[in-house]
Fold these 3 entries.
Entry 1:
Amino acid sequence: MDDRFKYRGDREAYSAARVRALEALLIKKGIITDKSVNTVLDFFETKMGPFNGAKIVVRAWLDPTFKDRLVADTPKAIAELDLPDGMAGAEGEHMRAVANAPGIHNLIICTLCSCYPWPVLGLPPYWYKDPTFRSRAAREPRAVLAEFGLPISEDIEVKVWDSSAQIRWFVIPERPEGTEGLSESELEALVTPEAMMGVAVAKAA
């Protein structure tokens, strides 16, 4: 691995300690209160998150015309659904959906930093922001997907979509076979953030 991409072994604990120190300093200076960070985290854990994305995906599975509208004009289609206010707000600006299909697999990355559609996917995982993932996924997506446990055969086209502040992408995974009798809530349980990022597929339980 390139030396630029090497990290200390305790990087997550180290980063958490730095965040706590920064939070304490901001509280001491009166810029935020001790509840500010928890309020933001609670918002993105209970109102904006992958449970919204799962509802959107399942509606697309059940209604092909909605799926077409979702791909054509994602914010407008999402606005049709009964979802919390703020779907197009912070970190949800300019969302766009792409659909997996037989012969096509989509993968979402952000080569510049870590742009990510929080309202439908939740908080971005640590590895999504890792420079090694960002560079390798753009250069050799099949190899990276195989390392995630998702080998893609050569007869399937892999499309890589680069999120940015202008467009934040997410994937509509294919509906798993054998799920015709499941309820909407049961289908939603099959839709993971990883499937909506393209590093996994939706699987029947």
Entry 2:
Amino acid sequence: MGFLDTLLGRTKPVEPNLDVLFAIPSAAYTLQAALDLAPTGVGAVCFKPAEGAAAAQSQSDIRALLDLDPTLEVSISRDEFGFTWVTCAQSPVDLAALVTGLHAINTTLVDAGFGPFLLCTVVGFHTSAAERPRRVGLVYLFKRGSVYPFAPAGAQTRDTALELQVRAALGGELPIEPELGRWFPIWDAPVP
């Protein structure tokens, strides 16, 4: 970054640290112990779709790579904003394998030159309590290199108390996004 960039207020985007995803399985133990949140076995990668042969080849590579794991059920969808979601569901739940699959999707896109198009990766958790089930997704923001919890509580409402509890529980284990204003809701996400 040069002197002129500094004067004009331009900043260099944070390089995605995809290895943060590998810290999620150990953080899952903390969520289970502190808040009775268990992994759902569902995770997704969101990115802005690119056009052209390279983009089509990347999606084909992703599908072929994920088809190697017979326990992963993969689906691709688009949301109302035009973002593509590659969703991986797994039963029985093996969070380490799920995170490895999500990491493979991200790495394939970054290696193909589509790193700037990555938006986020989400891993779902839920409570087993039948009387008051709660859901939360751990959202990794590529452009910030940080994670935040998103807990939908109904139609366009959030369980902010749960989000803050998750932040407190995982503060020492994951790079939690410090600016609450960047904890964007992802209402149409296939996870959590």
Entry 3:
Amino acid sequence: MRDEGVGVGVGVDGGVGEGPTGEPAREVSVEELYAGCGAALLHHQVPRAGVRRAWLAGPTAAAWWGPGGRPGGPVDVVTAVGPPALLGPVLALAAATSPVPGRLSVEARSAHVVPAPWRQVDPWTWHWMRARRGDVPLAPTPEVVDLGLAHPEEVDAVLDAANPGSFARSDTPGVLTWHGVRRPGPGRPLVAVGALAAQPDGSGHLRGVAVLPGERGRGLGRAVSTSLTRAGLALADVVTLGVYTDNAPALAVYASLGYETVHTFVSGPTSARSSTTAAVPSR
């Protein structure tokens, strides 16, 4: 049973607790979550209609049950942001008043305060990054073609060969357009692709950037990412993406395009469901 707006938090050790600001962890409504939490990912990427429960301790610490999915089906996902001193009581309260989610994404700086039943199995670490209009001049990329939503078989063929683990496919809901590079010559096959997906706030999000193995080292991934970033910044003042922290080549490209890391997450299935789907970098 929900105790809406209760001003008492459950501490990390199971007792009553509150953050160093004196503001207690409490369960809140969806409206209170969006009004009270300033996390960029929440406001750009999380649809309000998908949030079922939320907990808050001031503008910098919050957790919410939200939508998540990958090939294989949906799963309950909790996302948690904030510094450990504030987020610890938030997660403890959430764990004390709700079941174990199928998957958890928590900011890396606070991963050590996750309650034991909610700790992840085989977690991965990734950055949620954002570029702002005007931060870095982006040169035109005439070699990149705006494919729209046409040529789905060709797009999927590149993904199958170059990035088979991609969660973005030709029929992924929310994708606005695919951009790609074609090899000169007979048939002009696609050798690199990437998608721009719509965010709930109207901004764009890069997904599924992939280059065929034999075509790598020619700057095609950078060209596609540049083209998609330009398209995203034509929609809104910001554009976002998710990338694994160990993908050094991609991180170098994105930094050169003006992307900055806003959140670093540790994500993974919990012991409740160790082989299912959830919020991960939007590959």
